[in-house]
Amino acid sequence: MTSSHGDGRGTLAAALAWQVAAGADEAVGEAPVDRYAQPQAVRASSVTPMPAAAATPAKPMTAPPPANSGAADAHRIAAGADTLEALRAALAAFEGCALKQTATNLVFADGNPESGLMLIGEAPGADEDRMGLPFVGVSGRLLDRMLAAIGRDRTGAYITNILPWRPPGNRQPTPAEMALCLPFVQRHIELVRPRIIVLIGGTSAKTLLGTAEGIMRLRGRWFDYSSPGLAHPIPALATFHPAYLLRTPTQKREAWRDFLALKKKIESADSI
Ligand code: URA
């Protein structure tokens, strides 16, 4: 009696398991969308190679990308934004990164751009994608507690990510995706001009410092972050990502050390 139902359910369950394994971890629409039907230019530009990493950890990747690449478009478009609102609008209109096609929302930033303190994570997860705000899921709650421990909340900090769109299934962003989004985050920093930057996790630290060194070696260290549009370098602290701390609570002690150093730096920085 179970045969046809059982078989049908088994087939459906297998198809669902296949989709989950492929990274489709939530339903975002009633009707399927053929992503391969997107214009060729959109897909082609998403595989632009990342520029070579700079030689020293304290230098961001500022070498101009090849003139005819998607990264060159990103550079030009980001450089043309003179305000945060213009940068947000430019990102919302940018078709060069295929992640936009699968994301629900652009995740631009949250908090107070006047606070002097800018935190930069990796990429939105499912909760952030749904709400259009960075760090609002479980790791965001830990980040809020870490900020509270040094007397700050989102009125006293400004938060963004290297990538403004969620990679499907929370996979690791590719070097090509990061190269495409880097000009926007560099411009974001230039427009906010914070007194202090916190690089949250290895992806953020490596991308903005232009180094291949891992977070284990970078965390707890201060770097001078600079880019062509900044009048002077900004002190940047690398620290562990809260998602890593949730998986590895024994490292919370090191993160606490980093936040105490951050607090001290904030107190010694004029008027932050
Ligand atoms: N992890 C990040 O790096 N950024 C977010 O916004 C959420 C989780």
Q: What small molecules accompany the polymer chains?
A: uracil
Largest sheet: 6 strands, mixed
Mean pLDDT: 84
Determine the N-to-C terminus distance: 72 Å
Describe this structure as you would to a colleague.
The protein has helices at 3-21, 40-45, 70-79, 84-93, 99-102, 126-131, 138-149, 175-192, 202-209, 215-218, 242-247, 252-268, and strands spanning 110-111, 117-121, 158-161, 196-200, 222-225, 234-239. The protein is α/β, with parallel strands linked by helices and 272 residues long. The chain has a single domain (70-267), classed as Uracil-DNA glycosylase-like domain (Uracil-DNA Glycosylase, subunit E), CATH 3.40.470.10. A 6-stranded mixed β-sheet has the order 1-3-2-4-6-5, sandwiched between helices. α3 (70-79) packs parallel to α8. The chain is globular. The N and C termini lie far apart (72 Å). The model is unreliable at 38-58 (pLDDT under 50). Bound molecules: uracil. Uracil binds next to α7.
Write out key terms for the chains shown.
272 residues, alpha/beta, Uracil-DNA Glycosylase, subunit E, six-stranded mixed β-sheet, 12 helices, 44% helix, 10% strand, globular, binds uracil
Briefly say what this structure is:
The protein has 272 residues and is of the alpha/beta class. Helices cover 44% and strands 10% of the residues. A six-stranded mixed beta sheet has the order 1-3-2-4-6-5, with helices on both faces.
Write the layout of secondary structure elements.
Layout: H1 3-21, H2 40-45, H3 70-79, H4 84-93, H5 99-102, E1 110-111, E2 117-121, H6 126-131, H7 138-149, E3 158-161, H8 175-192, E4 196-200, H9 202-209, H10 215-218, E5 222-225, E6 234-239, H11 242-247, H12 252-268
Parallel strand pairs: 2-3, 2-4, 4-6
Antiparallel strand pairs: 1-3, 5-6
Helix pairs in contact: 3-8
The chain binds uracil.
Uracil binds next to helix 7.
